[in-house]
Amino acid sequence: MKLKVFSRLLAMVAALAAVAANAAPGSVTLVPSDGARFLVHQRFDIRVEGQGTGPYSAKLWIDGHRATFTSGTQGTTTTDGISASGWAGFNQRGSSLTQKGWHTLTAELSDATGTTTTTSRIQVIDPFDAGKGERKLTKNIVIMLGDGMGVAHRTAARLVRYGVNAGNPNGRLEMEQFPGTGLVSTHSLNSIITDSAPGMACYTTGNHAFNGQEGVYPAHVTNPFFAPRVEYLAEYLHRTKGTSLGLVSSADLEDATPAANAVHTANRNNGTGIVDQYLDESDPSNSKAYGTGLRVLLGGGRRWFLPSTTLYSSRTAGTGYAGLPADLITGWNLPATPAGQGSPTRDLIAGFKGTGFAYASSNTELNALVGGQAPEKLLGLFGYGNMNVALDKIAKRRGVLPADASTFAVDDYMAPDQPMLDEMAEAAFKVLSRNHDGFVLMIEGAHIDKQSHLMDADRAIGETLEFDRAVGVARRWADKLGDTTVLVLADHECSGFSLIGALSLSGGISALKSLPSDSASLSPSVIPARQNAVGTYDFAGFPSYQILADGYPATMDIDNKVLVGFGANSDRYESWLSKPTPVIDSLLPSAFKGSGGILGQKGYATIPELRSIDKDGFFIRGHLNGEGQAVHTAADIPVSAYSTGNKAWLRFIGSQRNTDVFFKLMKAALGGDAPADENPEEVE
Ligand SMILES: [Zn+2]
To answer: CA-CA distance, 155 to 173, in Å (whole number)?
Structure first.
């Protein structure tokens, strides 16, 4: 009994001690976080936040000198007025540092119970540091982003495009002809596995971000567009050199990769605000006081540009932004009240036209606009959501339905006349090259990733072929314009894409189609016939595809086709046959999606497991629970670099962090590199 009382006393003492230890705000964080890196003069927001018992006050020091906050009222519970419920926040917007080297940020957050102190050490890098010898600046930067493209995607595209003879590739992709190739690690601020938002943003800000976030640091704020910002490459170069920005993607333009060049948001899915910010921070009058200098925006996603009163519009107030914080506007020199921001009924196409953009909604219209003298600014929206993939666009152009398909996918997507990625790239270069102060251009092959997620190997390979044609366009423009650096890289690998062999079955594809169903063979002791059709090692041989004049295979279903496995897979059936229709994309108007939507009613599958062509395939139990599709992996990705005018490409050889790419590009643009020989760099 006595022992029981004593132990109860001990428990009370322990509880009191825990309360005492908690007396002071908890969960206190300071951003930029420890280890963050910036260029001299690169803008970023500082924020300290935490949870406790109000009223709150805070202090900030930079290298021991007391600094002021631009928002957050001392001695209040509401603090900056934009912090999430239960959180206190104090901000310094639009900061920058001029001295290279390490700096220490220290912040105190106090509440009714005490004070918590936090510090972070950040590094400032001087890109103007020219080093030895003559230097020549990179004027134009082109980032070719093959989303989800790992080494195996590149190899697969080469195998299909050129084939192999006696152990030697019969040709090399455009990207493989770049002189400098290296490896890049792809982790984000909160995981070894990144998604496309921080995956792209680390190249364009030099800073890591949380998954799902682009151009911002993590923060508990009431609107994702209020999160603390870090300046983009395009913003820095527009502000300091007057460059223009071009964004080209085969995805819906709200998607993470294009947005992570120009839009600051902690939620990659808030499409209304994302597309609004493209225009609102484009600096249409070319004041160079703020923004990106956006002059080219080509891709899908018309649904976000149409007023909410229009059929297939996706605009909502909840995915927009309204009334950015006053100190954010002041700190970043933004226009006070852009017209129509946050309004679901905003007609954004009219908004773009109003600032001088020419507009195309089809490939025919695009050709008409850039056939002669290109316009100064160009908006092209070629689908309601994601554009279609290369093989589906090519099928329509050829007028040949894919095997087992009864309609063309581009017709079902209500976008029958879409440009190929290389055609959009050509148009972008025509427009941007009119700016003699240079440009930044990002071109994304978005569906390499999306089709890898869906474990549609043939469409993923077709996407890589289309992307490589766009790389060829970029290389030719780099030669023509001079002083241009082109990078080909990915934000991460997707699906654990691996080349496991080739179809090895007497009678080939037609025999494959007539095999009895394997779908019920779930016992490990039963070998599915389609497993026996996989030729490994010697039995894979040398697949040989017929390439037509348009640059794409006549069919992906050749008798000894390349077979692909997915190491980061979900449940599915595998038939090895080309899929007649794509799985329904995630980025589409809601009317198109789901089994009862426009596409579902035409027989399109909602997830890979339900794909009809695979119904006789053997069941593969995936590694993942509840995903429905394959996922990104943590594998390093290859980067290939090419430059004219200087040897900036040399910087990318070897292994590097993803954030290093930003600093290497900016050193090339601001500090320069050794000049190239008079002739373009020879590869052989
Ligand atoms: Zn992805």
So the answer is: 9
